[in-house]
Every structure is written in C-alpha cells, then in structure tokens.
C-alpha cells in the first residue's frame, strides 16, 4: 500500500551556471504504517525532498505520485490527506492555541464550534489542553511544536511529513516532541516521514534513509530503492 511514490524525482533551483540541484533523482516510497527518518546534514536536500513528497513543490525531473491517497487529479497532490509539520514557527500569531489547532478544519468548511471541539480533543491527546487559550508568543519552542503537531492530528491525515520538528530544541525537549509526534501518528494510524540532521532522532524511527549532497543513499543491510 504505497502512499507516496517518488521516481527519480529531482529539484533544481535557478538556472544556468548558478543553478543549485537541491535533490538529484530520488526514488523513495512511503507505505502505510511506515516510520521513516530522512537524515543528513544541513543543505543536503531534506526539506526539498519533503516538499516534493507533500506536493508543495513540483519536481523538475522525474515524478511524484500518490497512488494510495485520494487525489483530485493525477497532477495535484492530496493536500487534505497529508499533514505537514513545518520547520520553524508556523502558528498564526494572532490566533490562540485552540484557534490555531482548529484552523485546517475551519478552512475545510467545518463549523467553528465543531472544529474547536476536535481541536480541544487533539490538545488533550497531546497533554497540552492547559495551553488552549495561550497565544503562540506565550509558548516555549517545545510547546509551540506540540501545538503544530496537534494541528496536524486534528486534520486526520493518512501521511504526516515533519521537517526538522525538533531542530531548534534542546535534547530533552527534542526527544519529547518526537515521542509526541510518534504517538500522534500511532493514534491516527498514519505513515510518518521525519527529516532531521540528528542521528539520535533518526534512531527513534524504524526506517532510516540518509541524504548527502542532494542524493538519497541506500541504507546498509537493507534493499536499496526498488525500481
Ligand atoms: P536541508 O533541508 O537538508 O537543509 P534544503 O532542501 O533546504 O536542505 O536545501 C538543499 C539545497 O537547496 C541547499 O543548497 C539550499 O541552499 C538550496 N535551496 C533550498 N531551497 C531553495 C530555494 N527556494 N531557492 C534556492 N535554493 C534553495
Ligand atoms: P524556548 O527556548 O523558550 O523553548 P524557543 O527559543 O525555541 O523557545 O522559541 C522562541 C519563540 O518562538 C517562542 O516564543 C515560541 O513561542 C516561538 N516559536 C517557536 N516555535 C514556534 C512555532 N512552530 N510556531 C510559532 N511560534 C513558535
């Protein structure tokens, strides 16, 4: 049950002599239930790969498809079935925690009251119900990331893509945020892909793929990407 299928997917920024190949032909599949880390140093192309998998960016070569998800058309990504935890601040400063968490549902047309009840339930599941009426500026970095995860949980996606979700956090907070993310994904029965530069984070996920200078490296002791 392949949810996302990237075949030789490449992404180049700019053109001519200053062009940067952020991702060379990456072949990468995510199946239902997978818990995958994409690990590599800063600038190795992890964010770009994640954006390709999310359909937020189009490949400049190869293709990305979503055979196991409902797409409106072959060309468009199944945005509503993919939850993205972005790197860095992603909460709306003027909205409190419940409003931020409910936002994807409100934007999808769910009535405000119902959306807020589901958001409250997600906050409760993540152990942060007490933060409901705080504004983002009143949260620590780890709290803000847990709210970003609650927002994804509220959306009930089948695939969760998290871009360096623990990147700016200290060790203990980072470990906690990753645990919260994994338990949220378990609750959803969703697949998970996490990008990280941190091998300690990567070790918490069952499948690990290394990235180096825009190339995915086949993991040791396992089969390389099938083609
Ligand atoms: P990582 O997530 O591993 O840090 P990125 O995917 O962010 O790597 O970046 C890979 C390469 O692509 C880097 O050289 C980066 O500078 C470049 N890059 C990323 N996004 C853009 C962009 N929007 N425009 C130009 N270059 C970019
Ligand atoms: P701390 O070190 O106190 O845990 P950080 O230095 O990581 O906090 O965060 C600084 C500020 O950035 C905080 O006010 C926090 O609320 C905000 N912030 C961090 N991550 C996010 C996010 N994902 N969305 C919105 N705001 C965030």
From TrEMBL:
GO terms for molecular function: ATP binding; ATP hydrolysis activity; transmembrane transporter activity. It comes from the Bacteria. Pfam families: ABC_tran. Keywords: ATP-binding, Nucleotide-binding. The keyword Nucleotide-binding applies. One of its GO terms (cellular component) is plasma membrane. InterPro entries: AAA+_ATPase, ABC_transporter-like_ATP-bd, ABC_transporter-like_CS, ABC_transpr_LolD-like, P-loop_NTPase. Residues 4-227 form the ABC transporter domain. The keyword Nucleotide-binding applies. This is Putative ABC transport system ATP-binding protein.
């Amino acid at each position: 049950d392949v949810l996302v299928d990237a075949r030789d997917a490449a992404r180049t920024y700019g053109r001519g002599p200053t062009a940067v190949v952020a991702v060379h032909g990456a072949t990468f599949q995510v199946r239902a239930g997978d818990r995958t880390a994409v690990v590599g140093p800063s600038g190795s192309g992890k964010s770009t790969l994640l954006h390709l998998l999310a359909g937020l960016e189009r490949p400049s070569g190869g293709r990305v498809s979503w055979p196991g998800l409902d797409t409106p058309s072959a060309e468009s990504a199944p945005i509503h079935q993919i939850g993205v935890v972005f790197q860095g601040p992603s909460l709306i400063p003027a909205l409190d925690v419940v409003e931020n968490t409910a936002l994807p549902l409100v934007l999808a047309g769910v009535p405000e009251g119902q959306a807020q009840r589901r958001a409250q339930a997600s906050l409760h599941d993540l152990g942060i119900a007490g933060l409901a009426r705080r504004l983002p500026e009143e949260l620590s970095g780890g709290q803000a990331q847990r709210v970003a995860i609650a927002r994804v949980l509220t959306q009930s996606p089948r695939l969760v893509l998290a871009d360096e979700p623990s990147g700016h956090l200290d060790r203990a907070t980072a470990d906690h945020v990753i645990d919260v993310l994994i338990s949220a994904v378990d609750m959803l029965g969703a697949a998970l892909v996490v990008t990280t530069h941190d091998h300690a984070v990567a070790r918490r996920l069952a499948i690990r793929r290394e990235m180096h200078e825009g190339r995915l490296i086949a993991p040791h002791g396992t089969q390389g990407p099938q083609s």
